[in-house]
């Protein structure tokens, strides 16, 4: 039986992923800040096949609470086969430009909190010498754009951190996966006009579970974001400065 931990378990992408693991009969440990919604999701996952669903509440910005949570996870499960880090916000870029406090707060939620969590779980994975750590970054982290560079820079930090952690953990049989979704139709993007490039949370969930099963390192979801970002990353600065992205 797989033992799966999800941080940010009330996220639409996380919930879809949890459903896949529940259908496989995995034991789940869900972490989110909204206890009421978390309980509803846990009840649903039991109906969908999860034999046991542990729940814990955490605001990821309460970094001093991370150690307690991690202790609780390993005490409950014994070991962890898959850890998915899925929490995030889509910051208001204009507000971040106007307020240093807000910019750092959003950087904390989308970047520093994930780095803190991964730093704290890494020794546990080193000790158990197996498992998968999947971290949801974003294509936005591949290149800062004027419309959302606070979010992009936080995700870039997550991507670089995960790259280093992957190299370290490869030596002890632990796989670290960087998940880079493009546009996904979730509550985070509810105000956006949707188009052909948009994916559903279920599509991303399938990609995450597949990447974890296959021992992948970096995955763009859906796949077509790989060539798109290849192009965006290589646009010369003198052209990029003139674009409005
Ligand atoms: N949607 C996209 O287009 C897209 C694209 C690329 C990457 N991503 C990434 O995918 C991941 C999942 O996002 P989603 O699209 O599924 O969005 P979502 O449904 O809005 O989920 C975001 C989740 O993050 C949680 N969260 C936010 N701040 C938190 C905090 N301080 N402490 C604990 N939990 C917190 C939210 O909890 P509450 O429910 O309590 O607010 C919510 O469960 C995120 O990392 C996001 O950056 C999304």
Structure, described:
The protein is α/β, with parallel strands linked by helices and 245 residues long. It is globular. Helices cover 50% and strands 15% of the residues. Strands 3-2-1-4-5-6-7 form a seven-stranded parallel β-sheet, with helices on both faces. The longest helix has 29 residues, at 100-128. The chain has a single domain (3-240), classed as 3-Layer(aba) Sandwich (Rossmann fold). Helix 1 crosses helix 7, helix 3 runs parallel beside helix 5 (100-128) and helix 5 (100-128) runs parallel beside helix 6. The model has no long low-confidence stretch (mean pLDDT 98). The chain starts with a strand and ends in a 5-residue tail after the last helix. The chain contains nine helices and seven strands, in the order E-H-E-H-E-H-E-H-H-E-H-E-H-E-H-H.
Brief sketch in words of this structure:
This protein is 50% helix and 15% strand. With 245 residues, the protein is α/β, with parallel strands linked by helices.
Features:
binds NADP nicotinamide-adenine-dinucleotide phosphate, Rossmann fold, 7 strands, 9 helices, globular, seven-stranded parallel β-sheet, 50% helix, single chain, 15% strand, 245 residues, alpha/beta
